[in-house]
Each structure stands twice: as C-alpha cells, then as structure tokens.
Amino acid sequence: MTDPQADQAVAAVTMLEVVNNNDFTITDMFDGVPVTFAPGVPVDCTPAICEHLFGWPAELPVRALKMAARFGWSGKDYLKPEGPGDKVPRYQTLAEKITITPVYYDLVKRNPNDPIPVDLGDEESDRPVATATTDATTKGGRRRRNKAPVKRGRAGAGDREGVRLGGR
After folding, report:
1. Cα–Cα distance between 67 and 6 in angstroms, integer?
2. Which one of 19, 33, 98, 121 is most buried, counting C-beta atoms within 10 A?
C-alpha cells in the first residue's frame, strides 16, 4: 500500500546560511540586535536578515550595490577594479565572496506523547542534580553602612556672614 501523504507538500522552514569569505569581519545590526559575520564561519540567518543586510534574493549586481551602500564600500577606492586585469569594481568582488545558501528544515508530524529521540524517557535523568558546595568562605554579619557626609559651608565664607551681594 502506498503512503497517502506522499504526494502532499511537506511544510518546511527556510533559513539561510551566510559565509563571509572575505579576510575581514562584517558587523551590522538587525532589529536592534548586533550580527557578526566572521571570515569563513557559517552563520544561520532568517530571510528577513539577509534581505535587510545583503539584499537577498536579488541578483548579484543588485546585492553588490546594496552591500556597498550598507557596509561603506562605495568610496572611490572601491569603485576601481582590484587588479589590472579585473573589469568589475572592488565592491562587487567583495560582495561575490559572501555566499548565501538556503537551508531547509522539514516539519514532521509527531505524537506529543512520544519521547523526544534524545530523551531517555525516565524522569530521574531529567531532574537537575544538586551540587554540594564545600567552600565555606562566605562572611557572616551585618553590612557596614556609610555615614552621610557632613555638610560644610564654603571655604572662607565665615567672614561674609552678614553681607548680601547683589540683593535689594
């Protein structure tokens, strides 16, 4: 017998893996959260982050312009080709070194009463283990309170007690 759900579409969650293949770190912000792309380290991002920072899913020339404006690659040094044989500007070669590949996660139906595969299934292993501390170096007693400083008058003000300056 064939599976009745074999021809139905599987629900999936899409994430994007971004790898910065340049020799410098890219740091930016998305929705108030700092995002760092270290050289050669894959970073999982949502499509919204990639659209905001890299102009994804546009074609490479459009994404390169977006990255040039966002990361400060729009100066005259970046508009020239890197080498004498290059025909593309430097900002475009830097943008080409950032790879964005989709990663798909399938959502599968499961029974909520089934144990999670990494779970051993017994309650004893799920409980936290209390660790006894043998270090008894805490101090007992009351906390000292600092006394408020005594207010003093201005230095040398003692000889001007009865004099009003600038008053009526």
Report:
1. 42
2. 98
Looking up tokens 């299934």 gives 121
Cβ 91 vs Cβ 71: under 8 Å? no
Q: What region, left, alpha or beta, does residue 6 occupy, with left being phi > 0 and alpha being psi -120 to 50 degrees?
A: alpha
Specify the 3-state DSSP secondary structure of 148: coil
pLDDT tens figures, 10-68:
556 688 999 999 999 999 999 999 999 999 999 999 999 999 999 988 999 999 999 99
Tokens of 18: 């971004």
Which residue type, as a one-letter code, is found at position 102?
A: P
Each residue of 132-141: pLDDT tens digit?
Answer: 665 555 556 5
Burial of 65 (0-12, 13-18, 19+ CB in 10 A): middle
Pairwise CA distance, residues 137 & 145, whole Å: 22
Global pTM reads: 0.56
Question: Cα–Cα distance between 103 and 122 in angstroms, integer?
Answer: 33
Quick check: 29 and 37 in contact, CB under 8 A? no
